[in-house]
Specification:
The protein has 269 residues and is mainly α. It folds into four domains: 91 residues, MazG-like (Helix Hairpins, Orthogonal Bundle), CATH 1.10.287.1080; 38 residues; 68 residues, MazG-like (Helix Hairpins, Orthogonal Bundle), CATH 1.10.287; 47 residues, no CATH class. It contains twelve helices and no strands.
């Protein structure tokens, strides 16, 4: 079998890997649950390649990510649930339905208007889906995925609640809530109550995610940038200690902080 630019070849390869007669033992052992973490991991690796602007790596990571829906669809087909054609039909139908300003007669003058129409159609879809369920067991939050990173999920949960006006009036009051939660963390820390500390830290992080939303910032992206900045500056600290021939663990906080301030001030200017 030869590689190809056509999706059909990828489908053939996946089917061969899952063939009980001569297929790959590892692939044959997998099910939806066992590869779900790989699906999430591949999405993160795509995001990482984009962040690094490594487009050769991005091409490869997109291929790894593309394999995931093909793998899931192959297993679903084996069980008579659906196949890749059903997956493609579902997304093409959704894209057409959610873009009436492109495929219908409605108009959107700018990206903001297009996003508003997308959100409007999504809200209508959620309302129709909820109408088919028992109101006693449904929630506005039902389709916010549990598997999202906790910070990203916090932002989506608060955004969904805000859609029915369950929200602070502006960012200033949200900031006051962050300060309130920070004080409660301090109280729990003073009491040395681990369970309470964890609870209050969770409340603080949730409030911070809410504040990011109010300020128009994605908290996951903000934290990712902060992680990158910390890693970059800490590497400078390591290199400076190496230049001064001082073991990092023996340098002491004052010296390490001095190295840190060097790179911080350099970046600021």
């Amino acid at each position: 079998m030869e590689p190809s630019r056509d999706l059909s070849r990828l489908l053939e390869i996946m089917a061969a890997l899952r063939n009980p007669d001569g297929g790959c033992p590892w692939d044959l052992e997998q099910d939806f649950a066992s590869i779900s973490n790989y699906t999430i991991e591949e999405a993160y690796e795509v995001a990482d390649a984009i962040e690094r602007k490594d487009f050769s790596d991005l091409r490869e990571e997109l291929g790894d990510l593309l394999l995931q829906p093909v793998f899931h669809a192959q297993m679903a087909s084996e069980q008579g649930l659906f196949d890749i054609g059903d997956v493609i039909y579902a997304i093409t139908e959704k894209l057409i339905r959610r873009h009436p300003h492109v495929f219908g007669e409605e108009a959107a003058r700018n990206a903001g208007g297009a996003k508003a129409k997308w959100d409007e159609v999504k809200a209508d879809e959620r309302a129709r889906k909820a109408a088919r369920k028992d109101p006693a067991v449904t929630s506005l939050l039902d389709d916010v995925p549990n598997v999202l990173p906790a910070l990203a999920r916090a932002e989506k949960l608060s955004r969904r609640a805000a859609s029915v006006q369950f929200d602070w009036p502006d960012w200033r009051e949200t900031l006051a809530k962050v300060r309130e939660e920070l004080d409660e963390v301090a109280e729990a820390a003073e009491a040395e109550d681990k369970a309470k500390i964890q609870e209050e830290l969770g409340d603080l992080l949730f409030a911070a995610a809410n504040l990011a939303r109010k300020l128009g910032i994605e908290p996951e992206a903000a934290l990712r940038d902060a992680n990158s900045k910390f890693s970059r500056r800490f590497r400078h600290v390591e290199q400076r200690a190496l230049q001064d021939a001082i073991p990092l663990a023996e340098a002491g906080l004052e010296r390490l902080d001095g190295y840190w301030n060097e790179i911080r001030d350099r970046e600021r200017t």
